[in-house]
Amino acid sequence: MPQGGGEMAEDELATVLSRAVEVKAEYDVRLLAQQLGTNYRSLRYWLRGDRPVPAHLLPRICVLLGNYAALDFLESQAGRVAFKIPDPRVPLERELVTVSNLIKEVGEALESVAETLADGVVEESELRVTIPKIEAVIQECASLKYLLEDLCKKKKQKKKTR
What we know:
The protein is an all-alpha fold. The chain has helices at residues 7-23, 29-36, 40-48, 58-65, 69-77, 92-117, 124-161. The chain contains seven helices and no strands.
Protein backbone atom coordinates (compact mmCIF):
# COMPACT_ATOMS: atom_id res chain seq x y z
CA MET A 1 0.00 0.00 0.00
CA PRO A 2 1.42 3.37 -0.92
CA GLN A 3 2.53 5.50 1.95
CA GLY A 4 3.58 9.10 2.15
CA GLY A 5 7.20 10.19 2.32
CA GLY A 6 8.81 10.07 5.67
CA GLU A 7 11.43 8.23 7.56
CA MET A 8 10.01 4.72 7.22
CA ALA A 9 9.94 4.93 3.42
CA GLU A 10 13.51 6.29 3.43
CA ASP A 11 14.65 3.38 5.62
CA GLU A 12 12.99 0.92 3.27
CA LEU A 13 14.58 2.60 0.25
CA ALA A 14 17.99 2.29 1.91
CA THR A 15 17.30 -1.41 2.51
CA VAL A 16 16.33 -1.94 -1.14
CA LEU A 17 19.45 -0.07 -2.31
CA SER A 18 21.73 -1.97 0.07
CA ARG A 19 20.31 -5.25 -1.17
CA ALA A 20 20.92 -4.19 -4.79
CA VAL A 21 24.57 -3.43 -3.96
CA GLU A 22 24.95 -6.73 -2.07
CA VAL A 23 23.43 -8.74 -4.93
CA LYS A 24 26.02 -7.23 -7.23
CA ALA A 25 28.76 -8.64 -4.99
CA GLU A 26 31.57 -7.93 -7.46
CA TYR A 27 30.65 -4.25 -7.48
CA ASP A 28 33.10 -2.10 -5.54
CA VAL A 29 31.23 0.43 -3.39
CA ARG A 30 34.17 2.84 -3.61
CA LEU A 31 34.03 2.65 -7.41
CA LEU A 32 30.26 3.25 -7.29
CA ALA A 33 30.83 6.37 -5.18
CA GLN A 34 33.44 7.59 -7.64
CA GLN A 35 31.14 6.96 -10.63
CA LEU A 36 28.40 8.93 -8.87
CA GLY A 37 30.75 11.84 -8.21
CA THR A 38 30.36 11.53 -4.45
CA ASN A 39 32.50 10.25 -1.63
CA TYR A 40 32.47 6.76 -0.14
CA ARG A 41 31.32 7.94 3.30
CA SER A 42 28.21 9.68 1.91
CA LEU A 43 27.31 6.59 -0.11
CA ARG A 44 27.64 4.41 3.00
CA TYR A 45 25.32 6.79 4.93
CA TRP A 46 22.71 6.50 2.16
CA LEU A 47 22.96 2.71 1.99
CA ARG A 48 22.55 2.42 5.77
CA GLY A 49 19.59 4.79 5.76
CA ASP A 50 21.39 7.31 7.99
CA ARG A 51 20.75 10.03 5.39
CA PRO A 52 18.29 10.29 2.50
CA VAL A 53 19.62 9.40 -0.93
CA PRO A 54 19.66 12.46 -3.21
CA ALA A 55 16.87 11.83 -5.70
CA HIS A 56 18.93 12.97 -8.67
CA LEU A 57 21.48 10.17 -8.04
CA LEU A 58 19.00 7.32 -7.75
CA PRO A 59 18.52 6.68 -11.50
CA ARG A 60 22.29 6.65 -12.04
CA ILE A 61 22.78 4.20 -9.15
CA CYS A 62 20.20 1.88 -10.68
CA VAL A 63 21.80 2.07 -14.14
CA LEU A 64 25.29 1.43 -12.76
CA LEU A 65 24.09 -1.57 -10.75
CA GLY A 66 21.80 -2.83 -13.50
CA ASN A 67 19.13 -3.13 -10.80
CA TYR A 68 15.99 -0.98 -10.75
CA ALA A 69 14.46 -2.30 -7.51
CA ALA A 70 14.93 1.06 -5.75
CA LEU A 71 13.05 2.94 -8.47
CA ASP A 72 10.38 0.21 -8.52
CA PHE A 73 10.05 0.64 -4.75
CA LEU A 74 9.51 4.39 -5.10
CA GLU A 75 6.98 3.86 -7.88
CA SER A 76 5.06 1.42 -5.67
CA GLN A 77 5.05 4.03 -2.89
CA ALA A 78 3.30 6.37 -5.33
CA GLY A 79 0.88 3.64 -6.43
CA ARG A 80 2.49 3.37 -9.86
CA VAL A 81 4.36 0.78 -11.91
CA ALA A 82 7.52 1.73 -13.80
CA PHE A 83 8.76 0.16 -17.03
CA LYS A 84 11.85 0.30 -19.17
CA ILE A 85 11.46 2.31 -22.35
CA PRO A 86 12.46 0.18 -25.35
CA ASP A 87 15.73 1.14 -27.00
CA PRO A 88 14.87 2.79 -30.35
CA ARG A 89 18.04 1.35 -31.89
CA VAL A 90 16.91 -2.24 -31.35
CA PRO A 91 15.80 -3.86 -34.61
CA LEU A 92 12.11 -4.68 -34.99
CA GLU A 93 12.90 -8.40 -35.26
CA ARG A 94 14.33 -8.35 -31.74
CA GLU A 95 11.30 -6.47 -30.46
CA LEU A 96 9.08 -9.18 -31.94
CA VAL A 97 11.03 -11.75 -29.92
CA THR A 98 10.30 -9.58 -26.88
CA VAL A 99 6.59 -9.65 -27.72
CA SER A 100 6.75 -13.41 -28.06
CA ASN A 101 8.39 -13.66 -24.63
CA LEU A 102 5.69 -11.37 -23.24
CA ILE A 103 2.99 -13.72 -24.48
CA LYS A 104 4.79 -16.58 -22.72
CA GLU A 105 5.09 -14.52 -19.50
CA VAL A 106 1.38 -13.67 -19.62
CA GLY A 107 0.58 -17.38 -19.84
CA GLU A 108 2.84 -18.17 -16.87
CA ALA A 109 1.37 -15.31 -14.82
CA LEU A 110 -2.20 -16.41 -15.54
CA GLU A 111 -1.31 -19.99 -14.65
CA SER A 112 0.20 -18.77 -11.38
CA VAL A 113 -2.93 -16.72 -10.61
CA ALA A 114 -5.12 -19.75 -11.36
CA GLU A 115 -3.05 -21.92 -8.99
CA THR A 116 -3.19 -19.22 -6.31
CA LEU A 117 -6.97 -18.95 -6.53
CA ALA A 118 -7.71 -22.67 -7.05
CA ASP A 119 -8.43 -23.48 -3.40
CA GLY A 120 -10.16 -20.17 -2.68
CA VAL A 121 -7.47 -19.19 -0.19
CA VAL A 122 -4.57 -16.87 -0.95
CA GLU A 123 -1.48 -17.73 1.07
CA GLU A 124 1.42 -15.33 1.54
CA SER A 125 3.80 -17.88 -0.01
CA GLU A 126 1.59 -17.95 -3.12
CA LEU A 127 1.67 -14.16 -3.35
CA ARG A 128 5.48 -14.16 -3.26
CA VAL A 129 5.43 -16.25 -6.45
CA THR A 130 2.42 -14.75 -8.21
CA ILE A 131 2.85 -11.00 -7.62
CA PRO A 132 6.31 -10.71 -9.25
CA LYS A 133 5.00 -12.55 -12.32
CA ILE A 134 2.02 -10.21 -12.59
CA GLU A 135 4.25 -7.15 -12.09
CA ALA A 136 6.64 -8.36 -14.80
CA VAL A 137 3.72 -8.73 -17.22
CA ILE A 138 2.42 -5.25 -16.35
CA GLN A 139 5.87 -3.76 -16.98
CA GLU A 140 6.29 -5.62 -20.26
CA CYS A 141 2.81 -4.54 -21.42
CA ALA A 142 3.61 -0.90 -20.63
CA SER A 143 6.88 -1.22 -22.51
CA LEU A 144 5.08 -2.83 -25.45
CA LYS A 145 2.54 0.03 -25.48
CA TYR A 146 5.43 2.51 -25.72
CA LEU A 147 7.04 0.48 -28.51
CA LEU A 148 3.82 0.36 -30.55
CA GLU A 149 3.25 4.11 -30.13
CA ASP A 150 6.84 4.75 -31.18
CA LEU A 151 6.50 2.55 -34.28
CA CYS A 152 3.32 4.40 -35.25
CA LYS A 153 5.02 7.78 -34.74
CA LYS A 154 8.00 6.70 -36.89
CA LYS A 155 5.66 5.54 -39.65
CA LYS A 156 3.92 8.94 -39.65
CA GLN A 157 7.29 10.73 -39.79
CA LYS A 158 8.38 8.63 -42.79
CA LYS A 159 5.18 9.55 -44.64
CA LYS A 160 5.78 13.27 -43.96
CA THR A 161 9.37 13.17 -45.24
CA ARG A 162 8.35 11.65 -48.59
